[in-house]
Amino acid sequence: MPATAADPVSRNALVILATIAGGAVLYLLSDILTPLALAMFLAVMIDGFARVLQVRLPGVSARAAVPLAVVLSVLIFGGAAFFIADNATSFAAQLITYTPKLNGLIARVASMVGVDVPPTLTELVQRLDPASHLGQIARGLQSFASTAAFVLVYLGFILASRSGWERKAVNLFASREERQEAVSAFLRIRNGVEQYLWVQTITGLMIAAASWLAMVTVGLDNALFWAILIFIASYIPVVGGIVAVALPPIFALVQFETLWQAIVLFGVLQVIGMFVGNVVQPRMQGRSLNMDPIVLLLALAFWSVLWGLPGAFLSTPLTTVMMVILAQFPGTRWIAVLLSADGDPGQLKHHPVEPPSPAGPAKPASRSTAKPAAERRSKNLRPRT
Predict the structure, then answer these.
(1) Tens of pLDDT along 292-319?
(2) At what angle do helices 30-56 and 134-160 cross, to 10 degrees?
(3) Of 23, 25, 96, 102, whose CB count within 10 A is highest?
(4) Which residues pair with 353 in a beta bridge?
(5) Which residues pair with 291 in a beta bridge?
(6) Count of CA atoms in the C-beta half-sphere (13 A) of 57
(7) Is 299 within 8 Å of 316 (Cβ atoms)?
(8) Facing residues of 357 across strands?
(9) Are 100 and 227 within 8 A, CB to CB?
C-alpha cells in the first residue's frame, strides 16, 4: 500500500534526506555562505547595539543609532585586532629568548615518557619543516582577507536594505495572522541570538578580567595579551574554556624556573571557568537558548566540519535559528524537540478561522500565543492600499 503524504515515517524520512542534502549544500557552498552568515551575525549584533545606544543615550535618534553602532564596532574590533597583531609579533620575538627553557621543558617531558635522547627545539622546528608550509599559510591569509572583504560588502548591503524588509513581509504573508506568526518567530530568533551574544560577552569579560588578575599576580608576561585571547575564545563553546585554562599555565612553565606558578595559575583559571560556566552563565542565560548541552557540543563539531573556524564561532547562533525555524512546522517539530533542553522548543501556532457570520467578523478559534511585542510589531506590517 503506497504511503500517503500524512504518513509519519515517510515524512520523517523526507526530513532526514532533506537535512543530509542541506548539509551537503552548506559544505559545497561554504565559500559563499560563510561570509554571508558572518555578515548576518554582525548585522544582528550591530542592530542590538544600536538599540542599546538609543535607549542608553537620550540624544541618539533611531536614524543615528545604526551608524554610531557601526563606527563604534569598527573601532572596537579594529583596536582589538591591532593590539593582538602588535603583541603577537613581540610575543613571537620573546619566544626566542625562551629557547633554553623550552629545551629543558622538552627534556623533562621526554624523560617522563621514557625518551632517552630528547630532541631540542631547533630539531623539532626542522622536523616540522616550516618552509614547506609557507604556501599554505599564505593561502590561508589570502582566504582570510577575501572572506573579510566579502563580509564587509554583505554587511553593508544588509544594513542598507533594512528598510525594505517590512514590505517584503507584507508581500510574503497574505493574512495578518501569518505575519504575526512570522514576526513572532523572527523576534524569537533575534532575541535568542542577542541574548547569547550578551551572555557570552559579559561572562567572557568576567573570565578575562579574573584571569588577567591571576596572571598579573603570579607575574606572567603578556598578561593582557592572554586575557584578550581568552575573551575572544569564550565565544567558542567548550574549546574556548580549554584554551583559557591550558595555554597560560603552559607558558608559565616556560617563563618561570619553579613549577608553583604554573600549578597555581592552572588551579585558579580552572576555578574561574567552572564558577562562571556553572553558576553565573546559567543564571544569566536562563531559558533564552533552551538548548541541550550535548546539542551545543555536537553543533560545534558539525559547523566546524562544514565551515571551519567561522562555523565554530557561529555554531550556537546557527543552531538556535535552526531550532526556532524547525519548531514552526509539524513535519520538523520533532527535530526541534530533540534540540531543546526541556522538550519545549516553542508552540506551533495554527489558527483555524471560523466562517464569517452576519453578526460581524470571525474570531480565531484558538488564542494566539504570539508575544505582545510581536503583535505591536505586526501592526506596522499591514498591506498598504
Answers:
(1) 778 888 888 888 888 887 888 888 888 8
(2) 50
(3) 102
(4) 364
(5) 340
(6) 15
(7) yes
(8) 360
(9) no
Q: Is residue 159 within 8 Å of residue 43, measured between CB atoms? A: yes
The three three-digit cell numbers of residue 290, written as one number: 533552551
CA dist 278 and 189 (Å) reads 24
Residues 6+ apart with CB under 8 A from 216: 223
Long-range contacts of 358-366 (CB under 8 A, 24+ apart): 364/177
Cell numbers 603577537 label which residue?
Answer: 88
Q: What is the DSSP string of 95-117?
A: HHHTHHHHHHHHHHHHHHHT-SS
Q: Which of 225, 233, 183, 205 has the alpha carbon at shortest distance from 83?
A: 225
Answer whether 101's CB lies under 8 Å from 254's CB.
yes
From CA 86, how far away is CA 83, in angstroms rounded?
5
**Single pTM value for the model:** 0.69
Residue 299 CB partners (closer than 8 Å, separation 6+)? 237, 315, 316, 318, 319
8 A C-beta contact, residue 41 and residue 314: yes
Cα–Cα distance, 226 to 241 (Å, whole number): 13
- Please name the helix (run of DSSP H) or strand (run of DSSP E) that holds residue 261, with its range, or none: helix 260-275
**SS3 label, residue 236:** coil
CB 244 within 8 A of CB 251: no
Find the distance separating the first CA and the last CA of the chain, reported in whole Å: 50
C-alpha cell at 197: 551574544
Give tens-digit pLDDT for 24-61: 888 888 888 888 888 888 888 888 888 888 888 877 78
Q: What would the grid cell of residue 79 be?
A: 583596536
How many helices and strands in the chain, by DSSP H and E?
15, 0
Q: Are 91 and 255 in contact (CB under 8 A)?
A: no
Q: Given pLDDT bands bounded at 50, 70 and 90, which one contains residue 121?
A: low
**Of residues 199, 291, 337, 12, the one with CA closest to residue 299:** 291
How far apart (Å, rounded) are the C-alpha atoms in residues 44 and 321? 12
